[in-house]
Amino acid sequence: MTQQATTKKLVAHVFGKKGCAKCTMLNRRLDALLAEEPWKDLVEKRYNDVETADGLVYFCLAQCVNPNRIPALLMAKVGQDGHEDFIERLEAGGVDPVCGASMLYQYVGIQTDYGTEGKGIITPEMIEHVLKEAATC
Q1: In whole angstroms, what is the distance from residue 113 CA to residue 105 CA?
Q2: Fewer CB near the terminus (10 Å): N or C of the chain?
């Protein structure tokens, strides 16, 4: 896997596809948060269109996002050598009061919950919650 160089400590990988209104909304909400402190100097966003070869490669390497629950956000930490590693949750599978069933099981991130609880919505609060969890790991 080829990784892009970054000077930031965290990378927010967004998985989406063209024509997806919820993908556009997640990108817009994440961009708004990343334009503010403390995120603007800490997190770089990378959009992965799962309908392209490169986007599909990153999606497959993630191995934790359900293709039926796109859009999704997955956080990676950048080491001193520039290598990215997806951030493991401190309590894998733990119940999360902010993100509920949208929270990924093993890694820090969220995917869209289209069930009755999530209603297909990823809120700004959920996104910020994921950013905060990633920053403390």
Answers
A1: 13
A2: N
Q: Give the HSE-up count for residue 132: Cα atoms under 13 Å, Cβ half-sphere.
A: 8
Q: Please give the structure tokens belonging to residue 131.
A: 């950013």
Residue-range definition of the domain harbouring residue 116: 10-136
Query: pLDDT tens-digit profile of 60-104?
Result: 888 888 888 999 999 999 998 888 999 998 877 777 899 998 999
Asked if residue 2 belongs to a domain, the reply is no
Contact of 15 with 48, CB cutoff 8 Å:
yes
- Residues 1, 122, 26, 132: what is their CA dihedral angle, to the nearest 10 degrees? -60
Q: How does pLDDT run across 5-41, given as a tens digit for each residue?
A: 778 999 999 999 999 999 999 999 999 999 999 999 9
| Residue 109 is assigned to a structural domain of this protein | yes
Please check whether residue 31 lies inside any domain of the structure.
yes
Cα–Cα distance measured from residue 47 to residue 35, given in angstroms and rounded to the nearest whole number: 16
Number of domains in the chain: 1
Q: What is the CATH number of the domain that holds 44?
A: 3.40.30.10
For residues 134 and 88, the answer to whether their CB atoms sit within 8 Å is: no
- Please report, as a single letter, which amino acid is at residue 65: V
